[in-house]
Structure formats: structure tokens, C-alpha cells
Design goal:
Porin, 18 strands, globular
């Protein structure tokens, strides 16, 4: 035991840190309509948010419906369709015949989302020296806001494509924390109690862009694009460091190189109704998102002490915001002004890899014979999960749509992998949602009509119990008083408002 104590203290000092997983889009969704419909969007999406849900939806424009709410002038109106424009022109001979008005397929959307988690962790953690209670901050300050800007642009306005390409748009989605910070690196000790995908874990700038094409009057379509992550390397050298508690400003040199790294997003859709009227209202879609994460490695840190001119070199790595490979498939059916959409997403958490520094330290700890319960240092393994989703949209009026949805997300962390020193928090989650979309006709000064969507989401994180191997109750190791058994659960409330201008 005497040999273990200094080793344990040394690990407390040099144990490298790493965050696990995070993205506001992966946790909540990427648009107001998507969140309101339970994110069951793979088959039905056809707006700017296609860049996230199914990028082929950018190439699905021929059946976009715009209510006929505005009058027709000499140049026509963007708020009516072709047949409506013809009928109005023939009915009123005083109005000059107008050109066939195209449905507006260029989009510019501005969205604000706010997440307010109400989580709790029931833990009796005590100081091993005086047995005094020690609080954990795991459930505090997890609320945040996100600003999202989306755009979809008709490529034919820039370059006329061949006639067999019925639709083609370029899409962009940009989401960033509303407090102005582009990202919040959360590289912390793995023993810290940390909800994955919430709070700082989810607050990262998300950039997705790509193109989608529809063929044969949008009977089928494909799309491809990329989500941007940042990888790089860095180094820091600090000279003349004093040994002691006083503040000091030693001369230092630093260098960091970051590069954008694309993660592929791809998708396709098929509308059987274009083949036979018997299948009218049926749509099918599939999408793929490649894993994405931020990685800065190597990130070498060198320190030269003033006393004795001795030096230390530390090998470090920053690894954060991991989102796994995901494959989704969806089917939807529309009839009687009602759309039912069903999705299933397969997330490949089992392919997650820890950073090189994490692997090195934890593997070394497992091989130390004097460490009681060395298996407690074993890093958790994650499992692949399937997330079913369902969404419903009902349009009682041309200008009003009511939406709701539900999804079930199993935990990618097995109970057997929670008994060691690592304290990742991940719950089985039930998610319900509700939303409404309003159509506002083109008004004076506006370039086109506007869609306003208001949505809400409620996540229920089911209570989970963690039983630690060799806990203090077993009298094996006093250090486990800092890492006792506990339970955790919570609820998360999300509100989202989107205004989309159609051009």
C-alpha cells in the first residue's frame, strides 16, 4: 500500500483528460421542424435542414406547396403556384396575364434553440481524511442557447443544368453557441461525473454544407456534402519556471496548427408515387453521417525549471466532441392532410477510440500489481445503438401545420462498464415533442413569404444506478470514498423558434 499511495497521487497530477461525446444536433436536432417531428425526417425533409437529416432532400422541390394567400400583380406572385396563377389571370381579364409563378425554393432561415436541463445525481461522496461530505457539480450550469443559420440556393439560378436534373440546390447549415463562443473544449478528467451530450459537451460550432439533386421530376434524388471538424497539432515550451505557489510569468513559446477535416454526409430519396398513383403520398429515404470529432495531437508541453535547469516533457492530447458514424432509414406516408414519418437510426458508438494518451496511462495502471482492483482502471467500452423515431404532421389549414413526435434512445454504455473509476453519465432517454408552423404571405418590403415554426422538446432521462467495484462500503480501498455508488436521472426542456424566408 505504501508504494501505491505516491503512485496514486502521481496519477492525480498527470492523468490526461478527455471529453467523450457531444453535439447539440445529435442530442436535440437541427431545425424547428425536425425537433417538432421527433427528428423523424429522413424521408420527408425537403428544406435547408436536409444538410443534417438527409442531404438528398435539397433536390426535392417540385412538390413544395405554397398557399395562395397573396394577390396577383403584373409580375405574378411568389406565394402562388403555376395553376393558381393561370386561373386567376383568366378569371379577371382586367389583370394582365401573368407568367407562371415558380414556387420559391431558395431559403434563408434563422433559428434560436434553448436547452434547459434539470438533472440530479444522488451521491454520498466524502473526504477520506475527515469524512466530510463533498458535493459534485455534475448537474449544474448545463443550460445553453444555440443560434442556427440555414440556407438553400437553387443551383439553376447560377448554372443551367441538364433537363433530366429536375431539382438542384446547394445547402448550408451553421450552428453556434448563442453566447458568442465558437466552441467550448471540455477536456476533463475521466473520473469527473459528466453527462455526455449535454452542457458544455454539446456546445460546439457545427458546419454542414452540400448539394442535392432530384431526377425525373423528383422521382428520386441523391445528395452529398460534408460536416467540418478541426484536427491539428501543437506544442508549448515554458522556460525558467520557479518551484512554488507564487504567481509567475515565465517566458513561453507556443505553436498550434489546425486544419478543417470534412466528415462525409450522404443520402438518397425515392418517391414511388411518381411511378404509380396507387402509391401517392409514399416517400422513402436513407442517409449516412460519418463520425466527426476535434483532435489536437500531438500537443507536446515542455517545461524547464529554473532550479537545476531540469526539464520535463509531457505528451498531451485534446480530443473532444465525438459524434459516431450514423446510418438512418425512413419511410413516410401522407394522406388526408396528415403525414406519418417513421425513422430508425443506427449509431456506431462501438467504433469509438480513446486518445493515445488516455490509452497509455490507463493501460499502464492496469499492469501495476500494487493497485487494488486494477480492473477499475479499465476504460469503458461502448455499444452500437438503434434509435427509433416517429413524427406526425397535420395541416388543418393551408397556412397552419401542427406537428408532434417521439423517439427512444437506449444508452450506449452498459452497466458492466460503470463500476470503475470512470464516471461517464448516459441514460436511456424518452423524448417527446410538439410544434406548430405558420405561413405568413409576402408583405410589403419582403422578398417572399415567411414560415415561422415554434417547437418544444421534452427529454426524460430514466434513473440509473451505478455500483462501484471495491467501494468504501466493502472496506477495500479508502480512495473509493471519493468514488462511491450513486444514482442519476433528469429531465431536459428544449424550446426552438425558426423564421424561414422563401425566395
Amino acid at each position: 500500500m505504501s508504494r501505491f499511495v505516491p503512485l496514486f497521487l502521481a496519477v492525480l497530477i498527470i492523468l490526461p483528460a478527455q471529453a467523450m461525446a457531444g453535439s447539440f444536433a445529435n442530442t436535440h436536432g437541427f431545425s424547428a421542424k425536425g425537433i417538432a417531428m421527433g427528428n423523424a425526417m429522413t424521408a420527408v425533409v425537403n428544406d435547408w435542414s436536409s444538410v443534417y437529416y438527409n442531404i438528398s432532400g435539397l433536390g426535392k422541390t417540385k412538390d413544395i406547396f405554397i398557399p395562395a394567400k397573396a394577390s396577383v400583380g403584373k409580375t405574378g406572385s411568389l406565394t402562388i403556384g403555376k395553376l393558381q396563377a393561370k386561373a386567376l389571370a383568366e378569371k379577371d381579364k382586367a389583370v394582365e396575364p401573368v407568367p407562371e409563378a415558380e414556387s420559391p425554393i431558395n431559403e434563408l432561415a434563422v433559428t434560436f434553440m434553448y436547452s434547459y436541463p434539470v438533472f440530479k445525481i444522488d451521491i454520498d461522496r466524502r473526504n477520506p481524511l475527515d469524512n466530510a461530505p463533498m458535493d459534485t457539480k455534475a448537474a449544474e450550469q448545463l443550460n445553453y442557447g444555440i443560434m442556427i443559420i440555414g440556407a438553400a440556393i437553387d443551383i439553376n439560378k447560377v448554372y443551367r443544368l441538364p433537363s433530366f436534373i429536375s431539382s438542384a440546390r446547394l445547402g448550408l447549415g451553421l450552428g453556434t453557441p448563442a453566447d458568442g463562443k465558437a466552441t467550448k473544449v471540455n477536456d476533463i478528467d475521466l473520473r469527473t461525473h459528466n453527462w455526455l451530450g449535454y452542457g458544455r459537451e454539446a456546445q460546439v460550432a457545427t458546419i454542414i454544407a452540400g448539394v442535392g439533386f432530384g431526377f425525373l421530376n423528383d422521382m428520386f434524388g441523391v445528395g452529398v456534402g460534408a460536416q467540418i471538424s478541426f484536427h491539428g497539432e501543437g506544442a508549448v515550451l515554458v522556460n525558467n519556471v520557479e518551484v512554488g505557489p507564487a504567481n509567475q510569468t515565465p517566458p513561453a513559446q507556443s505553436r498550434m496548427d489546425l486544419a478543417t477535416v470534412p466528415s462525409i454526409v450522404a443520402g438518397l430519396y425515392f418517391k414511388p408515387e411518381k411511378l404509380t398513383p396507387a402509391l401517392k403520398g409514399l416517400e422513402i429515404g436513407a442517409a449516412y453521417k460519418q463520425e466527426s470529432f476535434m483532435k489536437i495531437y500531438p500537443f507536446s508541453t515542455g517545461t524547464v525549471l529554473k532550479v537545476g535547469n531540469s526539464s520535463m516533457t509531457l505528451a498531451m492530447c485534446i480530443y473532444d466532441y465525438y459524434v459516431p458514424h450514423a446510418v438512418s432509414a425512413g419511410i413516410s406516408y401522407t394522406r388526408w392532410n396528415t403525414t406519418l414519418s417513421i425513422d430508425a437510426e443506427y449509431q456506431m458508438w462501438g467504433l469509438y477510440e480513446y486518445s493515445p494518451t488516455i490509452d497509455a496511462v490507463y493501460n499502464q495502471m492496469i499492469t501495476v500489481e500494487d493497485v487494488p482492483h486494477a480492473d477499475a482502471w479499465t476504460l469503458p467500452k461502448f455499444k452500437n445503438i438503434i434509435i427509433p423515431r416517429v413524427g406526425v404532421a397535420y395541416k388543418p389549414l393551408d397556412w397552419l401545420t401542427i406537428m408532434c413526435g417521439y423517439s427512444y434512445r437506449p444508452s450506449f454504455l452498459d452497466d458492466a462498464d460503470t463500476g470503475g473509476y470512470v464516471n461517464f453519465l448516459d441514460n436511456v432517454t424518452h423524448t417527446g415533442s410538439l410544434g406548430v408552423r405558420l405561413f405568413v404571405p409576402q408583405m410589403a418590403g419582403m422578398g417572399g413569404p415567411v414560415e415561422i415554426t415554434l417547437g418544444g422538446q421534452f427529454q426524460f432521462l430514466m434513473e440509473r444506478e451505478v455500483v462501484k467495484t471495491g467501494s468504501a462500503a466493502e472496506g477495500v480501498n479508502a480512495n473509493y470514498s471519493l468514488n462511491p455508488n450513486y444514482t442519476y436521472s433528469g429531465m431536459n426542456y428544449i424550446g426552438i423558434l425558426e423564421a424561414k424566408l422563401l425566395l
